[in-house]
Inverse folding.
């Protein structure tokens, strides 16, 4: 019988499994890198983030500070931000142990959590909508958070309409739950991860793609993913289409990581 992984290790394994899956059209995987961000950068982040994950599990509070620490720890390589969205999802899951526990954690967030989160955001190159009313890079943003008394949950609710990762905080981690269920249905092992990535991508317009290229590009990406599932094109053909079009479904990848964390805690196995 295999020993159980710790909660921290489970989060690290989830990050590792997502990036090593092949093929995930448009994203870094074991088949290809981006010019400035490589598979090794993602794998380095899974190792470097451990102290922040340990702190989250041990303290079960100060979620904003834990996200900020994770960003700072993983910004020490030249590949830039690799997992910011994943940290937003994983930190409450680590603290709570599962989805119900995570929901309790996020409801208890504070204004200071929101301030720490905004400071973390300033260290990333994450794309935001031009129509967003609160500029993450504006030094006055944290003062506005304090003035309005906005907790980190409030910040996520504010962003939920345009950001599917933030939306997980307000809809009971619905897509995270769906990803975990799909993993259980797909069976154990490596191939399940890439299949679940495609299944989510086929039905959920990726908000990272929307922010970069618009909704039509995201919806066309959904149609391409469904074509792969229907065997009307190959995953490699879709991957090349995404790379040519500059399409990077990064938010779906973050949700797959969260789904892996949950599924692993429920007995799903990757190395059977």
């Amino acid at each position: 019988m295999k020993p159980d992984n710790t909660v921290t290790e489970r989060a690290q394994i989830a990050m590792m499994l997502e990036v090593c899956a092949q093929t995930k059209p448009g994203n870094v995987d074991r088949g290809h890198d981006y010019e400035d961000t490589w598979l090794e950068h993602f794998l380095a982040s899974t190792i470097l983030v451990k102290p922040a994950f340990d702190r989250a599990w041990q303290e079960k509070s100060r979620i904003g500070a834990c996200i900020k620490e994770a960003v700072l720890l993983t910004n020490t390589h030249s590949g830039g931000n690799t997992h910011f969205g994943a940290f937003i999802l994983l930190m409450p899951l680590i603290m709570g142990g599962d989805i119900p526990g995570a929901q309790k954690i996020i409801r208890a967030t504070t204004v200071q959590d929101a301030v720490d989160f905004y400071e973390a955001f300033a260290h990333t190159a994450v794309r935001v909508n031009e129509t967003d009313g609160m500029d993450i890079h504006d030094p006055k943003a944290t003062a506005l958070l304090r003035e309005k008394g906005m907790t980190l949950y409030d910040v996520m609710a504010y962003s939920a309409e345009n950001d599917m990762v933030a939306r997980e905080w307000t809809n009971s981690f619905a897509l995270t739950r769906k990803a975990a269920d799909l993993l259980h249905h797909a069976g154990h092992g490596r191939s399940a991860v890439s299949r679940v990535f495609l299944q989510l991508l086929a039905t959920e317009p990726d908000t990272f793609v929307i922010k970069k290229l618009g909704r039509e590009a995201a919806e066309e990406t959904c149609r391409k993913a469904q074509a792969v599932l229907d065997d009307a094109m190959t995953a490699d053909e879709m991957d090349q289409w995404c790379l040519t079009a500059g399409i990077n479904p990064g938010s779906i990848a973050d949700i797959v990581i969260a789904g892996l964390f949950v599924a692993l805690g429920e007995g799903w196995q990757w190395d059977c």
